[in-house]
Design goal:
Blueprint: E1 10-14, H1 21-32, E2 35-38, H2 39-52, H3 60-69, E3 72-75, E4 84-87, E5 90-91, H4 93-96, H5 99-108, H6 112-123, E6 131-135, H7 138-142, E7 148-153, H8 156-169, H9 176-192, E8 205-208, H10 214-225
Helix pairs in contact: 1-10, 2-3, 2-5, 3-6, 5-9, 8-9
Bound molecules: 2'-deoxycytidine-5'-monophosphate (DC).
């Protein structure tokens, strides 16, 4: 790219699980006509692939080797339906959304080798006209030069309630109290890890979405990219 060219814009949307990042990122990307990176799906895919090949998820070296070898493809079904995630040739979309896959992702995401294995892949999603990047370290590590950064939060109770509704709607069998415990454990693990811990970038706008309807959050995030 010539030095004078304007860099491709990136909007980073980071935050803890259940903060609404997934839904908001998708809607905002649609409204802007930008690409979308669901980085959580990459960590879920790595945890899933390692588990499927019998790798001990606490064995950092083995999980890192598995991460380096895992082929992950996002496939747009073309009918406006949900993006499919194909892991080593297998459509693993349904398996990846379970809480078990989320917990495995959170565990293996603490390994520096795993994060390094996914670094270039994530940066490769930066394509014109722009990218909405959803994750935990999009604004701090992967796209520190992004011109637009937000950090979404919500109370743990509200996040557990949202997750409960989402999973129930998908027909999964979960309880609210177990989800709240799981969310709190995951937050602690994601925030306490040494590499790329969950925290807002210094230049991110933090938006507390507790009690705010989806439309309101979308409008608040869009106003970062397109000030009124
Ligand atoms: O957003 P999600 O629930 O799909 O993410 C699953 C786990 O992956 C999350 O608990 C931590 C990890 N993750 C990460 O460490 N860095 C990211 N950029 C995205 C997800």
């Amino acid at each position: 790219m010539p030095k004078s060219a304007t860099p491709i814009p990136v909007l980073t949307i980071d935050g803890p699980s259940g903060s609404g990042k997934g839904t908001i990122s998708r809607l905002v990307a649609d409204r802007l006509g930008w690409h979308l990176l669901d980085s959580g799906a990459l960590y879920r895919a790595v945890g899933y692939a390692a588990g499927m090949s019998g790798v001990d998820l606490t064995d950092e070296a083995a999980v890192t080797r598995s991460a380096e070898a895992t082929r992950i493809v996002f496939r747009d079904p073309g009918d406006g339906g949900e993006t499919r995630v194909v892991v080593n040739g297998h459509d693993a979309t349904d398996e990846l959304r379970t809480e078990t896959a989320g917990a495995a992702a959170s565990a293996i995401a603490a390994f520096p080798g795993v994060r390094a294995a996914l670094f270039d892949k994530q940066r490769g999603f930066r394509k014109g006209p722009g990218l909405v990047a959803d994750g935990r370290d999009m604004g701090t590590v992967i796209f520190p030069d992004a011109p637009f950064k937000v950090f979404l939060t919500a109370s743990a109770d509200e996040r557990a309630r949202r997750r409960y509704k989402q999973l129930k709607d998908k027909g999964l069998n979960v309880t609210l109290s177990a989800l709240l415990r799981e969310i709190q454990a995951r937050d602690e693990r994601d925030a306490a890890r040494v590499v790329a811990p969950l925290r807002p970038a210094d230049d991110a706008l933090t938006i507390d979405t507790t009690g705010i309807p989806v439309d309101g959050v979308v409008a608040a995030v869009l106003s970062v990219v397109r000030p009124a």
